[in-house]
Design goal:
OB fold (Dihydrolipoamide Acetyltransferase, E2P), 8-stranded mixed β-sheet, 9 helices, alpha/beta, 7-stranded mixed β-sheet, 22 strands
Length: about 450
């Protein structure tokens, strides 16, 4: 049996979800191979690995030496790859990585055995550089020099990597955050003592980069903001004029000791509290109003592929329930095919934006409901409503069983847009107990070079 700190030779078989790769160590006491997870490895690598952690069923290790590199290895294109924990798979050829991600999705569904869906061809991101249109910088400040730091957390830590160049986001974002470093004089947040004003800096770009919203997350309550408002107002005005694309600036008040980036408390301090996003392909064009608190996909061009996948599986002329519908992005995209769109969303700002968006796009047959999803589903049941299909796009934690049970009675077809294979399969397994089966699923690479996998799964009652 291998031991901690032992150095072994290992052949890597495959990538695994959440950023590691898997190899098996064969020995007399484990002829079937003992699983070892290794960071920064790829299928086909032959490595020397130091065991850093071990338990009954698997071990973790780190690369000591690459004995024979995989043909799928490539040079990371970001100079901060080894420091930043964001794009964990940049050292892997993109086309091969897409196949491996699809295999991860297949493995997640493997526990369903004969009830596993048909896996359709995975779809790559139209861009693997500069695709990210919502950027959330964590902010801190050095203790002695008081230098402002803006970037992302180092992997498995709350240490901020000061990022001056990030190739997966528009270069304009780098310029904006550098302006912030050079001109912000009001202090940065220090997590260890919960002091300092600026906690995060958020940019939301439209896909054409002509419009941007800025949000400054502050370590004060809205009641205390009046004390510093005059000084900050001048900074916001000057920064807004420095970048022509900035259409509005908001502050978010987040004085609590929490890992949440934002609270629900926003105030617009300059310009508008929204921008417009336009999504367009050869068949469809839609315009969306997006506010600081509203969710919208961070990779708009890949989002189009997902929206079209959903649209293709929607029944012509039938009523559609758009659950967890946000600002109406998916429902509005397919509104020319659906008979009627009923959108349900619990975020008030998103609901307000959705109502505007339906009007902006000339939609006539729609309803928008604000509130807890499962409670609204139950109301639909009492009203004996039925839908041709239900679209659900829940957060990473998935949908709860009460919501799924209600949905199962509202339609015989569910189109599940997921950003987490584990919770997707968990929810599909529960729907199987209610007489449903996943028919098809397709992976979409919304976040290139990360371990994240977006997918669209069509689930029907048998």
């Amino acid at each position: 049996m291998i031991k901690k700190n032992e150095i072994i030779e290992l052949n890597i078989e495959k990538l695994t979800y959440e950023g590691s790769a898997l190899g098996r160590y064969y020995s007399d006491d484990c002829p079937g191979g003992f699983v070892v997870f290794v960071k920064n490895a790829v299928s086909g690598d032959k490595l020397k690995v130091k065991i850093t952690n071990i338990n009954k069923s698997f071990a973790r290790g780190e690369i000591v030496e690459i004995l024979e590199p995989s043909r799928h290895r490539t040079k990371p294109f970001c100079p901060l790859f080894n420091a930043c924990g964001g794009c964990c798979y940049q050292y892997i050829n993109y086309d091969f990585l897409l196949k491996e991600k699809n295999n991860m999705l297949k493995e997640a569904f493997g526990e369903l055995k004969e009830n596993s869906p048909e896996f359709l061809e995975p779809q790559k991101s139209p861009q693997d550089r500069e695709f990210r249109h919502k950027i959330q910088y964590r902010i801190s400040q050095t203790k002695n020099s008081k230098r402002l730091l803006a970037g992302y957390y180092r992997e498995k830590s709350h240490d901020i990597v000061n990022i001056k160049y990030c190739p997966i986001q528009p270069p304009l974002a780098d310029k904006m955050v550098q302006y912030l470093r050079d001109n912000w004089t009001f202090g940065g947040y220090r997590e260890e003592n919960h002091k300092g004003l600026l906690r995060s800096f958020i940019i939301r770009f439209s896909s054409d980069l002509k419009n941007a919203l800025l949000t400054f997350v502050l370590n004060v309550s809205s009641a205390d903001y009046s004390k510093i408002e005059p000084d900050l107002a001048e900074f916001f005005s000057v920064m807004g004029s420095e970048f022509e694309c900035v259409k509005g600036i908001s502050v978010n008040f987040n004085p609590d000791k929490t890992n949440k980036i934002t609270s629900d408390d926003y105030k617009t301090v300059a310009g508008d509290d929204y921008i417009y996003e336009t999504l367009e392909d050869e068949h469809t064009k839609r315009i969306y109003k997006i506010s600081p608190a509203s969710f919208f996909q961070v990779n708009p061009k890949c989002a189009l592929k997902i929206f079209n996948e959903v649209k293709e599986n929607t029944l012509q002329g039938s009523p559609v329930l758009d659950a967890y519908g946000g600002v109406g992005a998916i429902g509005i995209w397919l509104s020319d095919k659906a008979g009627k769109i009923c959108l349900v969303e619990e975020n008030k700002q998103a609901v307000d934006d959705a109502k505007v968006n339906f009007k902006l796009n000339g939609c006539k047959n729609y309803e928008v409901f604000l509130g807890d999803a499962k409670e609204q589903f139950r109301k639909f049941l009492k009203e004996k409503r039925k839908f041709g299909c239900v679209i659900i796009d829940p957060p990473r934690k998935g949908a709860d069983t009460d919501a799924l049970e209600a949905l199962s009675k509202l339609s015989n077809k569910i189109i599940y847009v997921s950003c987490n294979p584990k919770t997707l399969v968990r929810d599909v397994k529960y729907l199987q107990t209610l007489g449903f089966r996943a028919k098809t699923t397709r992976a979409f690479d919304m976040f290139p070079y990360s371990y994240h996998i977006e997918s669209v799964t069509v689930i029907e009652h048998e």
